[in-house]
Specification:
Blueprint lengths: L11 E3 L2 E3 L4 H7 L7 E6 L2 E6 L7 H7 L2 H4 L15
Antiparallel strand pairs: 1-2, 3-4
C-alpha cells in the first residue's frame, strides 16, 4: 500500500528531547489539529502517530459554540420559589 502523502524531514532538538515539525499538508492528510489527542507507538520500522480522540475545547471555545436555542437557554426557567420570593 502506497502512502497518501510522503515527506522527508529532519529530527531536531526540542528542549530536553527531540521533535519533528508536522507540516500543514501532512497534518491535514492525517486529520491532525491543535489539541487533538494522539497515540505514539514504536513499531517495527519506526514510529506510528494515530489520532485517538477529539480535541478538548477551552472555555472560550465552549462558550462560543453555546446556542441557547439548541442547548435550552436558562437552566431554571420556572418562577422564583421558596426564599427566592421577595
Amino acid at each position: 500500500m502506497a502512502p497518501a502523502l510522503k515527506v522527508e524531514q529532519t529530527i531536531q532538538e526540542w528542549g530536553n528531547g527531540l521533535g519533528v515539525r508536522i507540516t500543514s499538508p501532512v497534518a491535514k492528510a492525517a486529520h491532525f489539529s491543535q489539541g487533538v489527542p494522539i497515540s505514539v507507538e514504536v513499531v517495527k520500522d519506526g514510529v506510528l502517530l494515530r489520532v485517538v480522540g477529539k480535541p478538548k475545547l477551552s472555555l472560550s471555545q465552549k462558550l462560543k459554540a453555546f446556542d441557547p436555542e439548541i442547548h435550552g437557554g436558562e437552566a431554571m426557567t420556572s418562577t422564583p420559589i421558596g426564599k427566592e420570593i421577595i
